[in-house]
Amino acid sequence: MDEIFHVPQAQQYCRGDFLTWDPMITTPPGLYYVSLAHVASFFPVAWMFRLAETFDVLCSTAALRSTNVVVAIVCAVLFHDLLLCIRPGIGDRKATTYAVLVALYPVHWFFTFLYYTDVASLAAVLAMYLFCLKKQFWISAMFGAFSILFRQTNVIWIIFFAANGAISYLQDLYPKDNVSHENIEATHQPNKVVSGRDNKTASQGLRRRRINSPISKKVVVSESSKVYNSLAEEVWDVCLKLWNSKCDVLIAFAPFVFVMVAFVAFIIWNGGIVLGAKEAHVVSPHFAQFMYFSLVSATALLPWHFTPSRVLELFRLFGKNKTCSLLATLMSLGLSFIAVHFFSIAHPYLLADNRHYTFYIWRKVIQVNWMMKYMLIPLYLYSWFSTMNVLGKSQTRVWVLSFVLSVALVLVPAPLVEFRYYTIPFVILVLHFPVIGNGKLLALGLLYAAVDLFTLVMFLFRPFHWEHEPGTQRFMW
């Protein structure tokens, strides 16, 4: 659907016309520049064999689509390297398996073969994350700026990576305060007496197991038996250290500051965040979208969330402190009810366009009767609780909080329900979820492949026509 805008615009660029702009296009021209480089790479050979006399002849729809195929391979390589950087002990073979799994993720896989901005957007964000992990902040900021040329909301992920990178940078400035989160339970369990020898061994183990990964740092605690008892305490400690080291942090992360200043200048100049079709992409308080993401991502990560052992684990967790758990559950139910009842936005595109699978999910599931959207609330909450609990096993509370806020800032303002908007936070989740066995990975990969095959068959062999508009229509995400 968006190709009817993107392909002609890219072909304008191929003809050297960089001033003509389709007012229906909402995103910057990053994809078109990548396509120019991609097409230019095989133009000399085409010209040599007289397959094309001019550059613009090569900019066919198929050639432009092939840009995303190449970029999808880059995505897989970046994901592989990121996983090895975040989890050095995972091994090359396992990392490759995970990269293939993400490549098969149905929404990402489907748009690999169409001329959309999503695949290139993901590649730029992953490259930004990888170089931030390697503490090459200038290169990371450059890819961050490049990612905005594909999707403006990627500015939120720039802030997310830069903020957590700054926290990790602080841990290097305060080395005595760094210990692995994995050792907290072993060394700070209540009512447990540790012998002098065991204490010495544990301390040596803690020093050996310090984490150097810049963004996926473990919980910061003091070596003198300090453990963060609350999120507020952890946030306060981080803020205090940021303030005390503000000059060092600002100098190290100046590239990200430059990008943010440039983005603010762009918004002021443009009069908003989207380029075209502004009336159809008005910022809206679509809090229900935040709930949809939780269930979609949890379903796509089935082995981590919806198993009997996982359900029992969450019930035991809630049973440890029944009063606080009950209050948190009631508050979450109340807020979720408000989000679903008052902030479920049915965009005109969602209601009118029966080419999207979301059209049928909305009509046949969410709106099948007046009760269904409320009946789904427990599933939304379970998905978010499970996600935060899984992340909390390896990440700091601040990291988890910043991720949740980033997801909200990306998705809540979007009035249109599009599963492709969920791809970047989904991939970040996969990067930071615990490693599972090969059997579960194989089962999940086969499930993804089955969905991919289904969507491919529906797209190719189940076309249909509209009475009010000429042309062939096809089913898609």
UniProtKB/TrEMBL annotation:
Record's keyword annotation contains Manganese: no
Chief site of localization: endoplasmic reticulum
Keywords: Endoplasmic reticulum, Glycosyltransferase, Membrane, Transferase, Transmembrane, Transmembrane helix
Membrane topology type: Multi-pass membrane protein
EC number: 2.4.1.256
BP GO terms, sorted: dolichol-linked oligosaccharide biosynthetic process
Transmembrane segments annotated in the record for this chain: 30-49, 69-86, 249-269, 289-306, 326-350, 370-391, 398-421
Source taxon at top rank: Eukaryota
Biological role: Dol-P-Glc:Glc(2)Man(9)GlcNAc(2)-PP-Dol alpha-1,2-glucosyltransferase that operates in the biosynthetic pathway of dolichol-linked oligosaccharides, the glycan precursors employed in protein asparagine (N)-glycosylation. The assembly of dolichol-linked oligosaccharides begins on the cytosolic side of the endoplasmic reticulum membrane and finishes in its lumen. The sequential addition of sugars to dolichol pyrophosphate produces dolichol-linked oligosaccharides containing fourteen sugars, including two GlcNAcs, nine mannoses and three glucoses.
Stated family: Belongs to the ALG10 glucosyltransferase family.
Name of this chain's protein: Dol-P-Glc:Glc(2)Man(9)GlcNAc(2)-PP-Dol alpha-1,2-glucosyltransferase
Source organism of this protein record: Urochloa decumbens
